[in-house]
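Quick one, tokens below. Sequence please?
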């Protein structure tokens, strides 16, 4: 008894066995048949990886950091600021200079925002003769900008800019 199979899936003794995919004389699959009856497996698509050069993605990525002897979860931007403050407080003159410049720049930005907010108030509320008339409304974009500026300024100066 031989176990040789013909290319049509039957053995040479004439008994029908389970159907095998057909191959030609050289062992290649016959057109329309393959060795994988369930078909080609679906490709696993990798998770989309954000562009590594995106500074916002990098800065906002959450990491575990040891702080005061315990692990804390914070974004990279916050972790870097903590490290810079720590180094400055330990006497790093370079970090002290850098932070001083940043604090100064932040103060200048806030002063600019205060001036801009006050100009909008003067232009659209205080010196506007139509303000308060029935049916008069400040343009939506201006009102939205003023609200956003007020919220931001309230964060730094809560007594001067109450919500």
């Amino acid at each position: 008894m031989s176990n040789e199979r013909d290319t049509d899936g039957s053995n040479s003794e004439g008994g029908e066995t389970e159907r095998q995919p057909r191959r030609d004389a050289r062992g290649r699959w016959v057109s329309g048949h393959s060795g994988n009856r369930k078909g080609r497996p679906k490709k696993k698509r990798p998770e989309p990886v954000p562009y590594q050069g995106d500074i916002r993605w990098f800065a906002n990525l959450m990491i575990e950091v040891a702080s005061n002897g315990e692990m804390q979860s914070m974004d990279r931007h916050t972790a870097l600021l903590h490290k810079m403050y720590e180094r400055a407080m330990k006497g790093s003159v370079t970090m002290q200079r850098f932070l001083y410049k940043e604090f100064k720049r932040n103060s200048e930005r806030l002063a600019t925002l205060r001036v801009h907010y006050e100009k909008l108030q003067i232009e659209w509320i205080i010196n506007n003769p139509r303000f308060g008339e029935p049916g008069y409304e400040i343009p939506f974009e201006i009102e939205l900008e003023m609200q956003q500026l007020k919220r931001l300024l309230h964060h730094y100066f809560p007594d001067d800019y109450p919500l």
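The chain is about 45% helix and 5% strand. The beta strands are 62-67, 70-75.
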